[in-house]
Design goal:
Length: 329
């Protein structure tokens, strides 16, 4: 497969596709992945190394020990944003294994000379599972499968002793595309001399405490729907549909690709929950951002969205109604 790690420059790999079975009670391979990462670090502790540790968890279907899930079930009370015990238990397992990796760095004497980056590929899923949302991204709006902040704003925590000041923060927008040029610059290379045009830019200056470009322009493109046999009509709102987004400074514009006239504009500095669509009140800002978004789509040859002439409801799974008994839970 052209996208396996060893076909992308990695020397070693351990993937779920090739290793689908884990030891008993190793929930989604959390222990296995952490142990493999630690083993690699032990074998390469005397040389510079790069470890990419991407857990499958938390991902549906959720898995966790019964006793840990029960402990979180006992914590449920009215008014909580989060109310799925097995999801919370899964998060604790991730935390435990991250701690195990950090402890191994301490044991190997590598903590002061290792950059650790913790991040995610998308926000938490809030579409219903078993008739309730697995998690909450509040105060952000919605989550995975959407371009609202709950879907695209993710954690970015960096530990680099002697370089990144402890407890420091930055409000300059970044995107995961930035990791490649950042790592190249940290390793002593020049990202501008790489053979192909990069989508990201090095954030090394930000890590070292310098002021960043808060007006930097970022783009997201989601040209498809999120629906299928595993999704019922009750789980999927209309916002999980093709859209393109541009953020410039504090302003973020969303363009629904099915209808070119449908746009939403938010001032994230004043409205992080994206509750007030400013598009009807700021036509000049809408025109400015849409023009930049159009140029980006043309430059990147972004695929158009068009009706599927062969579409039938059965093709992607017929949505099922919510059982009355389940709806009352």
């Amino acid at each position: 497969h052209p996208f396996y790690p060893v076909d992308q420059g990695f020397d070693e790999e351990y993937t779920t596709n090739k290793n689908p079975k884990y030891p008993k009670n190793d929930y989604k391979g959390l222990d296995t992945f952490a142990d493999k990462a630690i083993d690699f670090m032990r074998r390469n502790k005397d040389e510079p190394f790069f470890v990419y540790l991407a857990h499958l968890a938390p991902h549906y279907p959720f898995e966790a020990p019964e006793e840990l899930t029960a402990a979180y079930a006992a914590k449920i009370r009215p008014g909580l944003n989060h109310s799925m015990p097995i999801y919370a238990a899964t998060m604790e397992l991730i935390d435990r294994n991250l701690g195990k990796v950090l402890a191994a760095l301490d044991e190997l004497g590598l903590s002061d000379n290792t950059i650790v980056i913790f991040t995610s590929d998308n926000g938490g899923r809030v579409a219903h599972v078993d008739y309730r949302p697995p998690t909450s991204n509040a105060p952000l709006r919605w989550g995975k499968h959407t371009l609202y902040e709950g879907g695209v704003r993710v954690p970015l925590i960096v530990r680099w002793p002697g370089k990144v000041a402890p407890n420091s923060t930055s409000d300059t927008p970044t995107i995961n595309f930035d990791f490649l040029p950042t790592f190249v610059e940290i390793a002593g290379g020049d990202p501008s001399k790489m053979p192909n045009e990069l989508d990201g830019q090095s954030i090394l200056p930000l890590l070292l405490g310098e002021q960043g470009d808060k007006d930097r322009v970022l783009f997201w493109y989601y040209p498809h729907y999120q629906i299928g046999p595993a999704w019922g009509a009750h789980t999927l709102p209309s916002i999980c549909r093709p859209a393109a987004t541009i953020r410039k400074g504090d302003y973020k514009l969303m363009e629904w690709l099915e209808d070119e006239k449908a746009v939403e504009l938010y001032n994230l500095a004043e409205d992080i929950g994206e509750k007030t669509n400013m598009a009807p009140f700021m036509p000049e800002k809408v025109a400015e951002l849409r023009a930049e978004l159009a140029k980006w789509k043309q430059r990147t040859n972004a695929p158009d969205v068009y009706p599927d002439p062969d579409y039938t409801p059965a093709k992607f799974g017929q949505a099922k109604p919510v059982p009355k008994t389940a709806a009352k839970k």
